[in-house]
Amino acid sequence: MISVRRFDYKPGEHEAEKASNSYVMSLVALIAGLPIPIINLVATIGFYLGNRKGTFFVRWHCTQALLSQFSLLLMNSFGFWWTMSIIFDTELATNNYIAYIISIIIFNLTELVVTIYTAINTRKGIHVEWWFYGSLTNLICKA
Amino acid sequence: MRKIIFQLIVTIALFFAVWFALSKVDWMTIFKVEQVSKTTEEKLGDLFWDLINESEKVIQNKKITVPLDSLLSRICVSNDIDQSQVKLHIIEKDDINAFALPYNHLIIYSGLISASENESEISGVICHELAHMELNHVMKKLIKEVGLSVLISITIGNSGPDIIMETAKVLSSSAYDRNLEKEADIKAVDYLVKSNINPEGFAHFLYKLSDNESQLVSYLSWINSHPDSKERAEYVIEYSSDKPKNYETILAQETWDELKVSLKE
After folding, report:
1. Whole-prediction pTM value?
2. Residue from B1, B5, B6, B7 to probe the interface with A (highest A Cβ count within 10 Å)
3. Sign (positive/negative) of CA torsion B166, B171, B174, B176?
4. Which end of chain A is more exposed for a tag (fewer CB within 10 A), N or C?
5. What's residue B124's pLDDT?
């Protein structure tokens, strides 16, 4: 799911800190945004916009952190509105619903662990690329 | 680019595979979801019924209760519904009303029986309310109207009688969602046909009451709480038009007449 790669150059201490913060930011936003999933996307977009003129290493990791929020936003939003329709509308809790909620918990936890791992490594200046999001970031984030 | 698309497809497939695999586990039993909701429903139903039982006069006259039990019995047997689970209560009240409470309490007002010209009309209403029960509309409506938290607080005794009364009123005097009403009407026609009872009686009852609506508006609780009666009568007729028509009567004419006389006493 994740792989450590050589980056084009060796990032400085300040860059590593900022790049790492983008994951910390998404981590905080993820926890705060669990009840209302759009919050984590908005927070990460805010951080991304704040750093879009940063160095390539910072921009790259801000982009990867931002992109990774989209899949969670989709999954969590669907789960959120499904839950709302059970509480306030006529939908009933079914086996499929519970299975869906457990699935998104597994994916959220996986992303949480990967995010923490990436934040720690990025802080050390190590470049970590995620499955799919890393490739996508390479495509859209140019030096 | 192909690598990205491949990875995207694999990620989506992985998510759906996890979801699919997890959905094969019987979480409802593991988390005792049905057991908890059944207990809540049971407590709510009994609370509401106790309240009605205390404030209204319940008819015990066998000439009224036995024929209605016979109709209910035929409908239940023909449709594989466990009749022992359905608790039929007839209340002496002029309002033309019938409604279902949680835990399969079926309340019928004497006014509604008096307004029925024959057994197929009252059977239609019984089937409609049974359909609400069988399709779990009663709890769905309560959760939608008053919220799960209020219902749970009622069942654990944190709510006063006023709140219980207001919540019970949601079931006795307000409409279900339009789609739920239609679903119950269609199911009611199926029940009637399987019981060899003519569904036209049900449609006729709806037509009749919608015609009189302006004059009897204050008494027509069942119709007031079930809007667009004419439209409903039309789709009941339409849906039942291609059904087999081997209808028969359940009650002897004398039994029906006796029932009507007893209601006037």
Report:
1. 0.66
2. B7
3. positive
4. C
5. 95
